[in-house]
Design a protein that fits this description.
alpha/beta; homodimer; 8-stranded parallel sheet; 25% strand; 9-stranded mixed sheet; Lyase, Ornithine Decarboxylase, Chain A, domain 1
């Protein structure tokens, strides 16, 4: 079956490109002597997680417990839940999960550490914990240095918890800068904060096994930094328009797109495709002009979208598309786009090789 | 079971408010002598569609064939597919569907009309067709007046098609204006375009049974306009932050929200909840400050979100939230938010009365 024979809209993964992306990142990390623990939020597909592990990843990263459960059910044995897991219901699920897989979890507050400790220790069980450090994103995490040391000491003292190290997500890199060329110094600052914090803790007698960072746009630069033990990039499996706009990779390296059909051409400078925010998401980015990158139609711009309609501006190429034409569109933010789909169609040279259910889609609890 | 006993994030429908919204719109239309055919894209739940029909709707509106199939399977017999359905695969599905339900479909080009005609007439079957008129949104549809007349004449001549009338979606009302107070004249212009086009067609001997419009923000004003036979509002079943911001209803009328838990309070002016763009969508609107309306926390602002994190700005109410607190958030655009959920929990006075699978979620083909 060829991609051209499938009805649209359809979410497509190019296997050659996916494999190249997965291998290249694994090689990069191997050469830098850094452990790779990819965030699977990008694809949400166990088959791709297994591909990443086969190429040398030491385990995977997820945000939600529900994602961890899906991945563990698919035979993945080493999972980092990089999220503050809160509440009795979730702690009990986490405890059950940790019997089936090697699980580590995030902590960024004393109250969370105490809750986790109580949930595990009352059963005589333990869980590995990494303390989240905020290196500039301003979301979760504690400040580097003394505050992280204080929380780590607390974790060390609590029964049921094994302190394993520290981690951060340097997501502010792509938010605060215009291109990957500009971020070298910012990436070095992130590394310095993590390294400095780990050194402070070691001087205080705390064993810091893991110093973990993670974001695709900074992954390559981060490989040049000492003292980082692990990276957790996610988007690199597919890449997306945001990464292209930031200069991380050229557009032809993107392994994911959505194939749509032109269903209306109400004017010579406008074409409407059969996919909108329900297939691309509403994600916008200062790195991308419009709602995505249109492949192979010179001058066409993805101007706006509603749920089911994508409106292409053809004013630079009037009449370039006709009703029935197929258009391949790279979304702005692939992680959000994939989360809308029940399945992805994996092709090689346009021929369908696999259909992957997006098993971790919508696992928000 | 009380809502407070459910783990978060959870998507909640308030039954008292939903019923009030559904009844009020039905009453409004009945009093205006207009048929109500709600767009079910807002809820995607057959049980709510049946509620709308019980209160007097003549049928439902959907965008995608997949949504129509779900609704027909749930016993709904009168469905308008308000979308340009293109291609042999979809025409065959549409033909099968039209044997099980009373189906009407949209046409906005000659080439689409010809394709539909061929697909139905070669089996000696027919389908009801409405011509889409663009009254200002600039998406699909043909201009009012002569161009609509020409396409209607074409549809009338083609075998397999029954011309039933014209329809528009006046979605530019909320896009182009600041508040519902400002739109009176714009709504009148939409009505005049539709009325004038219908009159032109009738003078030319074409029977125009349906003159259909549809958008929640203009629904009430449109009731004062002559010559409109049908309205197709959608969002009114729940309403959302965009409708509140536009002044369509006060915030307490919104029947849908997402309950989240505070999982991190890294600073006294910041709280992070366990829901982000994977539960709210990335939708933004000039009518809403931030990513949604936070209920019951004076001064809290939903500043930004990533997939799993919602960041609340508490600078106007430092320390107002603690880890473990529950927060109820009305999304910017409810139709996109609902499309992310596998099920909605319906409550009355906080007690769970039903759990509804979102059966038409993700039906993009």
């Amino acid at each position: 079956m060829h991609l051209d024979d499938l009805d649209t809209p359809v979410a497509v993964v190019d296997l050659d490109k996916l494999e190249l992306n997965v291998r290249e990142m694994a090689l990069l990390m191997r050469e830098a002597g850094v452990r790779l623990r990819p965030h699977v939020k990008t694809h949400k597909v166990p088959a791709i997680a297994h591909m990443q592990l086969r190429e040398g990843a030491v385990g995977i990263t997820v945000a939600k417990l529900g994602e961890a459960e899906v991945m563990a059910s698919a035979g993945i044995e080493d999972i980092f839940v990089a999220y503050p897991i809160w509440g009795e219901a979730k702690w009990e699920r986490l405890r059950m999960l940790s019997r089936r897989a090697r699980v580590r979890v995030s902590v960024d507050s004393e109250v969370l550490a105490e809750g986790l400790s109580e949930a595990f220790s009352r059963h005589g069980e333990r869980i590995d914990v990494l303390v989240k450090v905020d290196t500039g994103l301003g979301r979760t995490g504690v400040p580097p240095g003394e505050p992280t040391l204080r929380l780590a000491r607390k974790v060390e003292k609590l029964s049921g918890l094994n302190f394993k190290g520290i981690f951060t997500h340097e997501g502010h890199i792509i938010r605060d800068f215009g291109s990957v060329e500009e971020v070298g110094e910012a990436v070095r600052q992130v590394a310095e904060k993590m390294r400095g914090t780990a050194e402070l803790m070691r001087r205080e007698g705390i064993e810091v096994e893991e110093v973990s960072v993670g974001a695709t746009p900074s992954a390559r630069i981060m490989c040049g930094e000492e003292g980082i033990t692990e990276q957790r990039p996610g988007t690199y499996a597919f890449y997306d328009a945001m990464n292209v706009g930031f200069g991380v990779v050229p557009e032809e390296r993107v392994a994911f797109w959505i194939t749509c059909t032109v269903v209306s051409t109400p004017a010579s400078d406008r074409a409407v495709i059969d996919g909108g925010t329900k297939v691309f998401s509403s994600a916008r980015s200062s790195k991308v002009d419009g709602m995505g990158l249109i492949r192979g139609v010179e001058g066409a711009r993805f101007a706006w979208a509603n749920e089911e309609h994508g409106v292409l501006d053809l004013s630079s190429c009037p009449g370039a598309l006709r009703i029935g034409d197929r258009v391949h569109v790279v979304p702005v933010h692939v992680c959000e786009a994939v989360n809308l789909w029940d399945e992805l169609v994996a092709v090689r040279n346009g021929e369908v090789e696999a259909v992957w259910p997006v098993l971790a889609r919508g696992k928000v609890r």
